[in-house]
Protein backbone atom coordinates (compact mmCIF):
# COMPACT_ATOMS: atom_id res chain seq x y z
CA UNK A 1 0.00 0.00 0.00
CA UNK A 2 1.36 3.44 -0.83
CA UNK A 3 1.99 5.81 2.03
CA UNK A 4 -1.08 7.81 3.09
CA UNK A 5 -1.73 10.71 5.44
CA UNK A 6 -4.82 11.20 7.60
CA UNK A 7 -5.90 13.46 10.47
CA UNK A 8 -7.36 12.99 13.93
CA UNK A 9 -10.74 14.64 14.44
CA UNK A 10 -12.11 16.40 17.55
CA UNK A 11 -13.25 13.06 19.05
CA UNK A 12 -9.73 11.61 18.61
CA UNK A 13 -11.03 9.38 15.81
CA UNK A 14 -8.74 8.34 13.02
CA UNK A 15 -10.02 7.49 9.53
CA UNK A 16 -8.09 4.79 7.67
CA UNK A 17 -7.80 5.00 3.88
CA UNK A 18 -9.70 2.32 1.97
CA UNK A 19 -6.36 0.85 0.82
CA UNK A 20 -5.43 0.24 4.46
CA UNK A 21 -8.78 -1.42 5.15
CA UNK A 22 -8.25 -3.67 2.12
CA UNK A 23 -4.66 -4.49 3.15
CA UNK A 24 -5.86 -5.49 6.63
CA UNK A 25 -8.46 -7.77 5.10
CA UNK A 26 -11.29 -6.30 7.16
CA UNK A 27 -14.60 -4.61 6.44
CA UNK A 28 -16.32 -1.56 7.87
CA UNK A 29 -17.37 -2.19 11.47
CA UNK A 30 -14.67 -4.81 12.14
CA UNK A 31 -12.85 -4.69 15.47
CA UNK A 32 -9.14 -3.93 15.19
CA UNK A 33 -6.20 -4.53 17.52
CA UNK A 34 -4.32 -1.31 18.30
CA UNK A 35 -0.82 -1.45 19.78
CA UNK A 36 1.52 1.42 20.57
CA UNK A 37 5.17 0.61 19.79
CA UNK A 38 7.41 3.49 20.75
CA UNK A 39 5.77 6.45 19.05
CA UNK A 40 4.07 4.35 16.34
CA UNK A 41 0.57 2.93 16.17
CA UNK A 42 0.28 -0.64 14.89
CA UNK A 43 -3.16 -1.59 13.57
CA UNK A 44 -3.97 -5.26 12.94
CA UNK A 45 -7.04 -7.37 12.44
CA UNK A 46 -8.08 -9.26 15.56
CA UNK A 47 -7.22 -12.53 13.83
CA UNK A 48 -3.69 -11.36 12.94
CA UNK A 49 -3.14 -10.09 16.49
CA UNK A 50 -4.20 -13.48 17.90
CA UNK A 51 -1.85 -15.32 15.51
CA UNK A 52 1.02 -13.01 16.50
CA UNK A 53 0.38 -13.51 20.21
CA UNK A 54 0.20 -17.28 19.81
CA UNK A 55 3.48 -17.29 17.86
CA UNK A 56 5.23 -15.13 20.49
CA UNK A 57 3.92 -17.29 23.34
CA UNK A 58 5.18 -20.43 21.59
CA UNK A 59 8.54 -18.84 20.77
CA UNK A 60 9.05 -17.65 24.37
CA UNK A 61 8.11 -21.09 25.68
CA UNK A 62 10.70 -22.75 23.44
CA UNK A 63 13.38 -20.22 24.42
CA UNK A 64 12.75 -20.72 28.12
CA UNK A 65 12.84 -24.54 27.83
CA UNK A 66 16.01 -24.49 25.74
CA UNK A 67 17.76 -21.61 27.50
CA UNK A 68 20.68 -23.66 28.85
CA UNK A 69 21.42 -25.24 25.47
CA UNK A 70 21.34 -21.86 23.72
CA UNK A 71 23.64 -20.32 26.33
CA UNK A 72 26.14 -23.17 25.89
CA UNK A 73 26.03 -22.73 22.11
CA UNK A 74 26.63 -18.99 22.49
CA UNK A 75 29.76 -19.66 24.55
CA UNK A 76 31.33 -21.45 21.58
CA UNK A 77 33.43 -24.60 21.32
CA UNK A 78 36.49 -23.29 23.19
CA UNK A 79 34.88 -23.32 26.58
Could you characterize the architecture of this molecule?
The protein has one domain (about 20-75). The longest helix is centred in the last third of the chain and has 20 residues, at about 45-65. The protein has about 80 residues and is of the alpha+beta class. The relative contact order is 0.09. It has helices spanning about 20-25, 45-65, 65-75, and strands at about 30-35, 40-45. The protein has a two-stranded antiparallel ribbon with strand order 1-2.
Q: Overall 3D geometry?
A: elongated
Distance between the termini: 50 Å
User: Ranges with pLDDT <50 over ≥5 residues?
Assistant: none
- The count of strands amounts to 2
Order of helices and strands: HEEHH
Q: Residue share in helices?
A: 40-55%
Number of helices: 3
List the domain count as a whole number: 1
Q: What is the spatial order of strands in the main beta sheet?
A: 1-2
| Main structural class | alpha+beta
Sheet with most strands: 2 strands, antiparallel
Estimate what percentage of residues fall within beta strands.
15-25%
Mean pLDDT: 89
Radius of gyration: 20 Å
Amino acid sequence: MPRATTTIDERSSLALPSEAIDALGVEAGAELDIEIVGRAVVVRSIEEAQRSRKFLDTFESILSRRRNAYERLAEGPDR
